[in-house]
Amino acid sequence: MPRFFRSLFGQVVLALVIGVVVGLLWPDAAVKLKPLGDGFIKLIKMIIPVLVFCVVVHGIAGAGDLKRVGRVGVKALIYFEAVTTLALLLGLVLAFVFQPGAGMNIDPKALDAKAMGAYADNASKLTGGGTVEFLLKLIPTTVVSAFANGDVLQVLLFAVLFGCAIAMLGERGQAIGGLVDDLGQVLFKIMGLIIKLAPLGVLGAIAFTVGKYGLGSLKQLGMLVLLFYGAVAIFVFVILGAIMRISGLSLIKLLAYLREELAVVFATTSSDSVLPQIMAKLRHLGIRDSTVGLVIPTGYSFNLDAFSIYITLAAVFIAQATNTPITTADLLTILAISLVTSKGAHGVPGSAIVVLAATLQAIPAIPAIGLVLVLSVDWFMGIARALGNLIGNCVATVAVARWEGDIDMARARAVLDGQGSPAEAEDTGATVPV
């Protein structure tokens, strides 16, 4: 067997090709392979809450300086808001320059309202109660419920408090801190076993999609899909590329380092499926544990760059497709509301459509029923959303670590140049002292 196909990346690529072929030739059988993809993602999600808890607690407890941990959190939030605002603006600008919905002349009354039924109720999760309600939702009913529900932000809140408490106890807390670290190492070993099933998960996910929707479904609303992919590419290679250059590293080399994870996300359209692996690889890159543990889980809800592009681009597209005139005030409203609704959307069923619904509720001029127009291509746009969000969070971690001085630059350059084995990080989750 060629060396390429002995690697995880090669096996994932082979699974992608086989999945497409099966989906095209035997669509009925391909649809039945969906449980392979669903099962793989569920296996990953099974350990994410406890793994995040262990990484964050170990990072904070071992940091020693709680003020430094607080600085990292504040800097991360500042970065998130600045970069997601750029993403929202990029979506608005490209929508007006290329006008993907112009000329469709859709009558909102002719659209099928039933298609929106599954998403209408979920929109209230983002709009109901406003900012105060959103902040209260960060606090779990009980510690156990945070882990049972798999709410990463709630787990993160408890992990930060737990880690700070251990650090404040000094020597008395070292035994518990060591136990948490040992548990984390066990979970990373479990992750190493689960990730070997990635090719099967990819095969099931891509075969189901091609079998159900067909390659021809890309033709519908093709301009919107292509424009969104182009917008994400511009954002990644221009804006994020510039941030990486300022940080002293190469974006292209980082993408090559994360190629296995990106391939899995491409097939499953879920960045959740690689969260533990991403954290392990960033730690292997030379970034301090506490920084990885704070920035990555928080970024999954607060730093959705590609998601932000999608919100503004799709909102303007719907207005154009339904011949709805929108004013400058409407645009500013879309921008302001999107900054809120995009936060915490992670984990909400049908989150892309739900966030759009929540956003458009604040702009009565744009018919919310127009969301039906993007339902049929939402999965295809979801590929770019998941990839863009993941890359954005990885770059955010590097940027914040560089800003705070929490990255060993010599090691980072060596690893990205291929002198450090990514497999070591995948198998052991080994950390690097900085």
At the fold tier of CATH, the topology name is Proton glutamate symport protein
Averaged pLDDT, please? 78
SS content category: mainly alpha
Per CATH, the class reads Mainly Alpha
In the residues, how many domains can be counted?
Answer: 1
Q: How many helix segments?
A: 23
Largest sheet: none
Which shape, going by the Cα principal axes?
Answer: globular
Roughly what percent helix? over 70%
State the separation between the terminal residues, measured CA to CA: 39 Å
Measured by DSSP, the beta-strand proportion falls in under 5%
Total number of beta strands: 0
Q: Quickly give the CATH architecture.
A: Orthogonal Bundle
Order of SSEs: HHHHHHHHHHHHHHHHHHHHHHH
The CATH superfamily turns out to be Sodium:dicarboxylate symporter
Describe the structure in brief.
The protein has a single domain (3-428), classed as Sodium:dicarboxylate symporter (Proton glutamate symport protein, Orthogonal Bundle), CATH 1.10.3860.10. It is built from 23 helices and no strands. It has helices at residues 3-6, 8-25, 27-31, 34-63, 66-98, 117-127, 130-137, 143-149, 152-169, 171-195, 198-213, 222-246, 251-257, 259-268, 275-284, 289-302, 305-321, 328-341, 351-360, 372-375, 378-404, 409-416, 422-428.
Your description of this structure?
Helix content is 76%, strand content 0%. The protein is mostly helical and 434 residues long. It has a single domain (3-428), classed as Proton glutamate symport protein (Orthogonal Bundle). Helix 9 (152-169) packs antiparallel against helix 10 (171-195) and helix 16 packs antiparallel against helix 21.
